[in-house]
Specification:
Layout lengths: L2 H8 L21 E2 L5 E5 L4 E6 L13 E3 L2 E3 L10 H15 L4 E6 L10 H9 L1 H4 L4 E4 L7
Parallel strand pairs: 3-6, 3-7
Antiparallel strand pairs: 1-2, 2-6, 4-5
Helix pairs in contact: 1-2
């Protein structure tokens, strides 16, 4: 997997809530869709849950113009849209871990950044399948924050 190319494909457009399914062809094969529209896959045996979200904080889907300077990817100054690095960077990390067969359950949530309150996918599935999630001893969320 070429992480940079994958990130550029994932951020080619913004993805508001309810358009996340358009990213499914880019996700690893074997993904399972749960009752609320999230996607997940389990690799091997592990008590670890890895999470990220597929949506972008935006109201509509728009084409993203990338500005690439060395290893830095951004959008033009004054753009009215977001890059979507939150949380497509997390999606890339989890896709790479899946490709490397790192044991764990990988959950790709939808609607986490929606304008109708957020946490739609994570809260929705937790309420429906609490016993499924109670088996994990740890959860690592790849939701970017800050610069560190």
């Amino acid at each position: 997997m070429n992480v940079k190319e994958t990130f550029l494909k994932l951020t080619e457009y913004t993805h508001p809530f309810k358009t996340e399914h358009e990213l499914l062809p880019l996700l690893p094969k074997g993904m399972i869709e749960d009752e609320v529209g999230n996607y997940f896959i389990t690799i091997g045996q592990s008590d670890t849950l890895f999470t990220c979200h597929l949506d972008t904080y935006c109201k509509e889907k728009v084409k993203v113009e990338h500005v690439i300077q060395g290893n830095k990817i951004s959008i033009p100054t004054g753009s009215t849209y977001t890059l979507g690095a939150d949380d497509q960077a997390g999606v890339c990390i989890m896709m790479y871990m899946i490709e490397q067969n790192v044991p764990g359950t990988y959950y790709f949530f939808i609607g986490e950044e929606s304008f109708s309150g957020g946490r739609w996918g994570s809260l929705g599935i937790f309420q429906k399948r609490r016993s499924f999630f109670s088996k994990f001893k740890r959860c690592i969320s790849f939701d970017r924050r800050g610069y560190g």
